[in-house]
Design brief:
mainly alpha
């Protein structure tokens, strides 16, 4: 049976969650403003951005491309076989492009980067904060937000945009390869152009890249914000990482749901 103390505890829990989300949006807004400010960019911040892009995208590019190739071939083969069974094989390429390019590849790329980089950034920032490195920068008159945090947001976002671009092009070519029976030279170029023009319309592309941009901001802003507002105790570092990842996956799925509603409803 509920006790009189349950309601205040539940209210306090909700208040804590609301404050966490409010702090997250505040940090995200500050990071976005800083990313758009020319004053942010100097040799030190460019070095942090470059390292973030290298570790997030360049290091895993071969494995990521191989994963997208296998995923695209499998999904397109399933869709093509299903379409042939129902007499809709002429629409197989369009179905594959819609499923892969507009939905699966962007979301899976965001998950890929979240698992590799989001958790790593949260851990790194948590340890920097616990060890007092960010406070030391402030004492030296250096803004840690501008030097350490915003460059990670920029680098992670650019890396996700780049990986998604690679994934989109790769999945499109793989889908065309499967649908043409691995004989693309025997297919008419006009068919691929028609499908691309139909599916990847200006409205669809605007929705796609807006979604990817939000994904890029989410996989960096949410883990960093969670790490920055966690208690400065070593045993709280893994808790901050876990909370950040849970919040991140919730945000990614919410963005994907909204994008689906805008695209198809």
């Amino acid at each position: 049976m509920p006790t009189p103390g349950d309601s205040p505890a539940r209210g306090a829990g909700l208040d804590t969650r609301f404050r966490a989300w409010a702090e997250l949006f505040r940090f995200g807004f500050d990071a976005l403003i800083g990313a758009l400010s020319p004053a942010t960019y100097n040799s030190a911040t460019r070095d942090v951005v470059a390292r973030q892009i290298y570790f997030t995208a360049w290091q895993i590019l071969p494995w990521f491309a191989a994963f997208i190739v296998v995923l695209s071939l499998v999904i397109t083969s399933i869709l093509a076989g299903t379409a042939r069974r129902f007499g809709l094989y002429d629409y197989a390429l369009e179905l594959a492009v819609r499923a892969l390019v507009l939905e699966a590849v962007p979301l899976l790329t965001a998950f890929f980067v979240a698992l590799r980089t989001g958790a790593a950034i949260a851990t790194e920032v948590s340890l920097m904060r616990i060890r007092g490195e960010l406070t030391a920068l402030e004492r030296l008159g250096i803004d840690p937000m501008r030097l350490e945090l915003i460059p990670r947001v920029i680098g992670g976002t650019v890396a996700l945009l780049a990986l998604t671009s690679v994934g989109v092009v790769t999945s499109l070519l793989c889908a065309h390869l499967v649908v043409t029976g691995f004989q693309p030279w025997s297919a008419h170029d006009a068919e691929l152009e028609r499908v691309v023009a139909t599916v990847l319309s200006p409205g669809a592309m605007l929705t796609l890249w807006s979604k990817v941009l939000i994904f890029g901001l989410a996989v960096t802003v949410i883990p960093i914000s969670e790490a920055m507002h966690a208690p400065r105790r070593m045993f709280h570092a893994p808790i901050a990482v876990l909370n950040g990842m849970v919040r991140l996956f919730f945000a990614l799925m919410l963005v994907e749901t909204v994008a689906l509603a805008l695209q198809y409803l």
